[in-house]
Amino acid sequence: MSRVAVIPGDGIGPEVTEQALGTVASLGLDIEFDVLDHVNASTFLRTGSALSDADFRRVARGDSALLGAVGDPRVTSPEYARGVLLRLRSGLDLYVNQRPARLPHDDLSPLRDPAKRGIDCIVVRENTEGLYSGVGGALHVASGHEVAIDTEISTARGVSRIIDHAFGIARRSVCMVDKSNAVPSGGALWQRTWRSIADRHPDVVSWHLYADVAAMRLVSDPGEFDVIVTNNSFGDVLSDLAAEVAGGLGTAASINLNPGSGFALCEPVHGSAPAIVGTGTANPIGAILSAALLVGHLGHPAEAEAIRAAVDRAIAAGRRTPDLGGSLSTQQAGDAVRAEL
Questions:
Q1: 179, 210, 221, 312: which is the annotated catalytic residue?
Q2: How many CA atoms lie within 13 A of 306 on its CB side?
C-alpha cells in the first residue's frame, strides 16, 4: 500500500484535485490518500501558519504527495506560498523539478508551422538553490535610496546531482542552459560540472545554450530538445514557455522529487486561478497528468501511460474545457478522461 498526502490548497486546486483523485481511484490501485484540506490560505490568514510542523511531518511520513494549487488574492505576503511550497521542497530535499512538455493534440499548438509543433521534452530544474534560496536582504526600504540584494546560490553538490539526474533520464540528448557569459562564477561551476558528467555518458548527445537563445529555440524548433537542465530561475521561465508551446498551462504537469529518498511531490503548473474559482470551468488535465506522474513514480508505469493516452483521446475527441476550445465543465472533462480509460 502506497500512502499519498494530498494538499488540495487554494482556488481551483480542490476542484481539479478532485478529478485527479477520481481518475487514480478508477484504476483500483493499492494507493491510500491522506487529504490535508486545511492547509490553505484561510488557515494561514487565521493562524499565521502556512504549513505546521505537525502537517509537515504528516506529509513526510507518506511515500509521496499531490498538491492542487497555492495562492489566494487575500494573502499579500510571499511567506504563505514560500511556507508551503519552498518548505516542502527544501525540507524534503526535493531537488529535482521535472516538467514534461508534450503536445497532446496538434491544434493546441500556438506555432504556425505544423512541422515545428512536435514538442516532447522534459525541463529539469534545480529546485533548492539559485535565486530562490532566500539569501539576501534590503536596506533603506521605501526611502528612495533602497538597496535590494538577492543572491544566486550554486553549490558543487547541487549542480552535480541535478545534471546527473538529467543524463539519467535522457532518451537521446541533454541541453545544459546557463548564462555563463554574464554570470561567470556560477556559470563556470555549471560548465565544468556539465562537461565532466557528459564525458561519463558518451551515448547521450550533450549540448549547451545560453538561456536567451534556449528561449528562442523553444519557439522556433521545440522538437530538437529532449532534456533541458538548468538552474532554478531559468528553469522556472523555460518550463512555462515549454508548457505554452505544448498546449498551455492548463495541461502542464510537474513532479518535484528526491531520487535518493524516493519521495515525490506532484502538482499541476497552472496555479490557483482565483478569477475562475467556482465557475466549473477549470481545466483538470494538468492535475490528472500530475497524478499520472505520481502513479508512474509509485511503480505503476502502465497505468500512468494509460492515463496519458486517455487524456490524448479525450482531447482529440473535442472533450475539452473552454480554455482548450471546448465547452465541458471541470467535472465533465474529468469524466471524459475516465470514460477513455
A1: 179
A2: 13
